[in-house]
Design brief:
By secondary structure, the chain is of the alpha+beta class. It is built from nine helices and 17 strands. It has two domains: about 60 residues, no CATH class; about 200 residues, Fumarylacetoacetate hydrolase, domain 2. About 20% of the residues lie in helices and about 35% in strands. Strands 1, 2, 3, 4, 5, 6, 7, 8, 9, 10, 11, 14 and 15 form a 13-stranded mixed sheet that branches. Strand 16 and strand 17 form a beta hairpin. The two termini are about 35 Å apart. About 45% of the residues are buried. Belongs to the FAH family. Pfam families: FAA_hydrolase.
Amino acid sequence: MRLRTVQLSDGPAPCVRLRDGRLARIDRLLPDAPRDLLALLESERLDALAAVVDGTAAVADDYCVDTEAPVLAPWTRPRKILGIGLNYGAHAGDLGEQAPRSSPASFLKGDHTIVGPGRPIVVPPGIGKVTAEAELGLVIGRTCHQVGVDEALSYVAGVVPVLDQTAESVLMENPRYLTRVKNYPTFFAFGPELITLDEVLAHGPLSDLQVATIHNGAVHRKDTVAGMTFSPAELLSFHSQVMPFYPGDILSTGTPGAVGISPGDVVRCELGDGLAALTNPVR
C-alpha cells in the first residue's frame, strides 16, 4: 500500500492509493479509523486496512479525493527520529572520515525539524555550508525493543524517502556539535508517501534498492542498500537494544552522498527505479 496525508477543505486527511490509481480516504474505508496516519500506525490497523483495500472490488467515488490534492508531511509528531551517520563508506570519505565498523554512529532529531514534500528547506544565515542528504527512512509499525537482526524488519511498517540536512561547516568545527547541526527547522523532509514493506519487497530485495541524492536535476551520488556498512535490519536491532521504538518512529539509515545547497536549489531523494521520490526547494 501507499499512504499519504493530503489537505482537504475540512482539514488534513490520511488516504490510501487504490489499485485503480484513485486516492481513497482511510476514514471512509475503515470504520472508526483515526484521521491521522500516526494514530493509524499506533492502532496497528494497517493489516485491516490492507484487507479492505485488497477485498474491495469497487470503491464509491465519494470515498475518494482528488489525486492532485496538496500533499502534507505524512505525520508531524513521531516520538523519535533517529538518524545514522557515515553508513556508506563513500560519504564518510566526503567528510574525511572512515565509516564506523564496530557499531553505527547515530543521533536524534526533534519533530520541529519536519517539513513535508514540496515545502522549502530553509538555510539559516551565518552558519556556512549546509548539505542535503537523500536517505531511506524506515517507519516502525509496532513497538520494537531488544529484537534480533533476523526479526527486526518484521517491526517495520514501510519506508519513506527522506532528505536530512546538516550544517556541515559547523560540524567540521567539532564533531561533538552533531545534535546542533542536525536540528534546525526544516532539516528533516519526508514523504510524500509511506510505502508498506510488502510493496517495497515486491520490487526486489531491500538490499538492491537504490538511494539517490539529486541536486538541481542531476544525480549527485547514488548507491544501493547493499552499500551500507550496517543494513537496515542491523541498525534497527542494534538501537533497539538501547531504546524502544514506537509506531511512527522513523529510522533514517544514512546517505550515499551529501550535497551542498543554496537558496534557489531544488533537491530530491529517489528510492529505486521510480518507487518513490521526494522533492524540496531550498530557500
